[in-house]
Design brief:
Distance between the termini of chain B: 46 Å
Structural class of chain A: alpha/beta
Largest interface: A-B, 62 and 74 residues
Strand content of chain A: 15-25%
Distance between the termini of chain A: 45 Å
Number of strands of chain B: 21
Radius of gyration of chain B: 24 Å
Oligomer: heterodimer
Helix content of chain A: 25-40%
Number of helices of chain B: 8
Radius of gyration of chain A: 19 Å
Chain lengths: ~300, ~425
């Protein structure tokens, strides 16, 4: 006998597809924010499923910090080719050159992505931006809506969010206002990895464990490359590592791991005892409220 | 390997130990990560606590801490080998009703926390009424802080009796009572050795085993058309598919169907997904339906069976919960209304009564509904909506009202009368 019960991964997939279709049906000009990381890849994959056999009916935007791992850019371009989707690149380097933003003293370009993103969204007239944020990531996101309202400055005001009932989303905005949409709101890190495995989705090879040259810095392992060269007094060594998240190459740390296939990663994640941001992101260690501040400003 | 999904809402205030209970579920199910625990241990120590305050695990935004307010529903996630759980954690205080209605709208289960020392109080009644109003099929009454009443069976039995007396006035499909201590961990994940007289399951095993599949409506086929897929590519030049999420019922290729509002009948040619065709579709699957005849169907239309259609109505009788602090609902006012995938406009014809959520008393003299107030109203809609009573079909029985000038979502509506007999 059939039980007519969807597995939880298929339920999450159906919910995300519903959200994509709702936005495309109701908003004027949506766009998907694509970082090349695993969450935005899952988002893009879900978007392609939502409109099959048609092409994805909106562009994707990459806020290019100029500090990308080359493997991530290559993977991005393969996705764009395969899906025939339009790619908009908003360049942080270009914005620095124009004097719109200035890099922070520690070299982080995380925070200055925000004005670049908002400028590009305004210039292109995007009234809905899909983001890969998940509510399980940390506290600032646990209360986020699926349809997150942003004022004409792109800012998030926690007190001015719309109640979200059933699956009845309200994307109505005035000119200049916009909605940030999070189709992966109810996914957890383990769901993402399980889905990547189940759907055999292509991700940058950095996510898979391999022997890489690394240095240990502040308790974290950074791969030796043009963005994070070996400093005086440090010794590089070869270890088997993989990336659990991928941000800017100068700030994203690797974790020790021998999981070189998706099934092995799923197994490892299921047993892991640190949040993905706590384990790998130098930028988020700054303060507990760092994420909340970035969110308010409109970064996600 | 395939686990299913259970969504539950927690209702209670800080004093009931709700945050501690959620912290305990996350902690004992090993969902808490070492860095989160470390931060909570540090804060607990800084504050001079004797024990690690698990309530801190669900501590909110800095904006909330600074302003001493709770903004709204927080969603939390944990999984066991049997199920994945989504918790809609709704805070107490003033905006309680709005938040609980939001959290309960998607919940399979509502956890109602009762402090064993205080027994059934006004707040317990309010939470239970709201859960039944939103049609939550399962209610679990967590009688918390049993450690503070010496794990006394008589205390638990008294609460169970009081609650059952009150609940008899409401339509509750499944009501369960569990004595526990969130702080000490009794009957949350592990069976308590302190209450050998209790022969039920600990909370987590109860949630893992709860049968929710039969709560869904698999009888009445309702497919609100969300989006029409017409690829502008040469290889799919003649393709036309109706994309949407199955609201209820089971659809199969070959089924005779009727499209509303046109009333034209046709047959399902195929049901497709990006992974290929499927031989049936049921809620909450997101699929694309193709029909044998070229008939004009667009977003907002509804596909049903010819002998089982929703009512096409322009006059709605509904319960609404008012959610806007800037204005009240008053007769004569017009709003945008969203029902399934259809937007229309609505005018409030009449307020029949306002319900006191604590006493369930109906005030028929009410002339407006303010923030967090619930009442029965009559609406006139600019065009027909295809509806079912909310208690039979939440997907086609629910709607939201949106203020046309501010675009704020101002009300949640449930079609049909109250689910209780008072």
């Amino acid at each position: 006998m059939r039980t007519h019960v969807l597995s939880q991964l298929r339920s999450l997939e159906a919910e995300s597809i519903h959200i994509f279709r709702e936005v495309v049906a109701e908003m004027q000009r949506p766009c998907l924010l694509f970082s090349g990381g695993k969450d935005s890849i899952v988002m893009l994959h879900l978007a392609s499923k939502a409109f099959a056999p048609a092409r994805i009916p909106f562009p994707i935007m990459h806020v290019d910090t100029g500090l990308n791992f080359p493997e991530v850019l290559a993977c991005r371009d393969r996705w764009v080719d395969r899906l025939g989707v339009q790619l908009v690149v908003a360049s942080v380097q270009d914005a620095i050159d124009r004097g719109l933003v200035r890099p922070e003293p520690n070299g982080s370009r995380n925070r200055i992505q925000t004005p670049v993103l908002l400028e590009a969204a305004e210039k292109n007239g995007f009234d809905a931006l899909f983001g890969g944020g998940r509510r399980d990531e940390e506290k600032a996101r646990a209360k986020e809506r699926v349809f997150s309202f942003r004022d004409e400055f792109g800012q998030w005001d926690p007190k001015n969010q719309r109640p979200e009932l059933w699956s009845l989303y309200n994307g109505r905005v005035h000119q200049g206002e916009s909605i940030r949409v999070f189709p992966l709101s109810n996914w957890t890190e383990l769901d993402i990895w399980s889905y990547l495995e189940a759907e055999e989705i292509e991700i940058p090879e950095l996510y898979l464990a391999a022997e890489r040259e690394v240095v240990e810095r502040g308790g974290m392992l950074y791969a030796v490359n043009e963005f994070t060269p070996v400093r005086d007094g440090e010794t590089a060594e070869v270890r088997s590592v993989r990336y659990r998240t991928i941000g800017d190459a100068n700030l994203t740390a690797a974790v020790e791991s021998t999981a070189s296939t998706l099934p092995q990663i799923v197994e490892e994640i299921a047993a892991v005892r640190l949040t993905e941001r706590g384990a790998t992101r130098g930028d988020d260690k700054v303060s507990e409220a760092a994420m909340e501040d970035r969110k308010r400003e409109g970064y996600f | 390997m395939a686990t299913d999904l259970l969504r539950f809402a927690t209702a209670g205030s800080v004093d009931d130990g709700k945050s501690t209970l959620i912290g305990r579920l996350l902690f004992d199910s090993k969902t808490i990560f070492a860095d989160q625990l470390e931060s909570v241990e540090k804060v607990s120590k800084d504050r001079g606590n004797d024990y690690t305050d698990l309530a801190l695990l669900t501590d909110g935004l800095r904006a909330e801490r600074e302003q001493g307010i709770t903004i709204d529903v927080a969603y939390r996630y944990f999984a066991t080998p049997k199920r994945k759980f989504i918790i809609a954690d709704t805070p107490g205080h003033i905006q309680y009703t709005r938040n609980m209605v939001t959290g309960a709208s998607t919940a399979d289960v509502a956890l109602i926390l009762v402090d064993a020392r205080k027994g059934v109080i006004e707040q317990s009644r309010r939470h239970t009424f709201l859960a039944t109003l939103l049609g939550v099929p399962h209610i679990v009454v967590c009688v918390n802080k049993m450690d503070l009443v010496d794990y006394n069976e008589a205390v638990f039995e008294k609460i169970r009796q009081d609650f059952t007396d009150f609940a008899a006035r409401l339509r509750i499909k499944d009501l369960t009572f569990i004595p526990l201590s969130a702080l000490k961990g009794d009957n949350v994940v592990d069976r308590s050795g302190n209450m050998p007289w209790f022969d039920g399951s600990p909370l987590l095993s109860h949630l893992e085993r709860l049968h929710v599949a039969s709560d869904r409506n698999l009888v009445d086929v309702r497919f609100p058309v969300q989006y029409v897929i017409r690829p502008h590519q040469h290889e799919h030049i003649d393709y036309r598919g109706y994309a949407g999420t199955v609201a209820s019922g089971v659809m199969k290729p070959g089924d005779r169907v009727v499209a509303l509002p046109s009333g034209l009948e046709t047959t399902i040619a195929s049901i497709e997904t990006a992974d290929g065709p499927v031989d049936e579709a049921f809620p909450p699957m997101a699929v694309t339906v193709r029909l044998t005849d070229e008939i004009d169907i667009s977003r907002g239309d509804m596909i049903a069976r010819p002998n089982n259609t929703p009512a096409a109505v322009q006059d709605l009788d509904a319960q609404v919960c008012w959610m806007d602090e800037t204005a009240s609902l008053v007769p004569g006012k017009k709003y945008a209304i969203k029902h399934t995938t259809r937007w229309a406009r609505a005018v409030v014809k009449q307020i029949n009564y306002r319900v006191d959520v604590n006493t369930l008393h109906r005030d028929e003299e009410a002339t407006e509904l303010g923030l967090n107030e619930i009442g029965r109203i009559q609406l006139r809609i600019t065009q027909p909506l295809f509806v079912d009573p909310y208690q039979q079909n939440p997907q086609t029985g629910s709607f939201i009202l949106v203020d046309e000038s501010t675009n704020r979502t101002v009300a949640a509506g449930m079609i049909g009368g109250l689910p209780h007999t008072v």
